[in-house]
Specification:
alpha+beta, 5-stranded antiparallel β-sheet, 37% helix, 15% strand
Length: 214
């Protein structure tokens, strides 16, 4: 009887050991997955931050090299009807407004015609994350109300993207960036997959995205 009792106890101990081993493996696996996800999020955030800096640097080069306003409509006056944010880039048609334009298409209005396109193949190729235009769309906006800003979106929702842009917005000063997840957002755009807005120039104290902003 004692032998049978001992055998039963041994089996129980073995089962407990198997259970605990399984729990340990599951915990380690879950921890590894969390670590991998955190690494991916940080990498995505850093790539996005680098791309935004590349975009801003090239726009800054445009406005410092060609700092004079341009009479786009040839009416003899250089004013807001030509460009509400002189001398910042305009859309590829040398216009501005609510529609926006692909970041790779925008033009530096003061540059010679053959050099107006800011993002040539070399510069576009230097983008880390946003060069993948099948997954990411970067739209440039310039208007009299909101100033100059970009909107970055992802083709489909992704929790890593959502977390990355949430972390990234904390890296910038107040009213420099905002994350939108609504559909439609205050501008009327579908941001259900997550939109990251970044301001290059704020022209007014308020906008559709920032009703009150210092």
């Amino acid at each position: 009887m004692a032998d049978k009792h001992q055998q039963g106890s041994i089996i129980v101990y073995i089962l407990i050991a198997i259970f605990l081993t399984g729990m340990l493996v599951a915990s380690m696996t879950q921890g590894a997955k969390k670590s991998a996800s955190s690494t991916q999020i940080n990498a995505m955030m850093l790539y996005l931050q680098n791309d935004i800096q590349t975009i801003q640097s090239n726009i800054t080069e445009c406005i410092t090299t060609y700092s004079q306003g341009v009479d786009i409509n040839a009416d003899g006056n250089i004013d807001a009807s030509d460009n509400p944010n002189q001398p910042f880039p305009l859309y590829h048609t040398l216009t501005y407004g609510a529609a926006g334009d692909a970041i790779t298409a925008i033009k530096c209005p003061g540059a010679p015609a053959a050099q107006q396109t800011i993002f040539n193949d070399r510069i576009s190729g230097s983008l880390k994350l946003l060069a993948d235009t099948s997954n990411y769309t970067t739209t440039y906006f310039t208007n009299a109300t909101d100033g100059v800003y970009i909107r970055i979106t992802r083709a489909v929702s992704d929790p890593l993207w959502t977390e990355a842009i949430s972390r990234l917005t904390t890296k910038y000063s107040q009213c420099s960036s905002i994350v939108e997840n609504s559909s439609p957002d205050p501008t009327g755009f579908n941001c259900s997959a997550g939109c990251f807005y970044y301001w290059i120039l704020r022209q007014s104290s308020g906008s559709s995205l920032f009703p009150v902003c210092p």
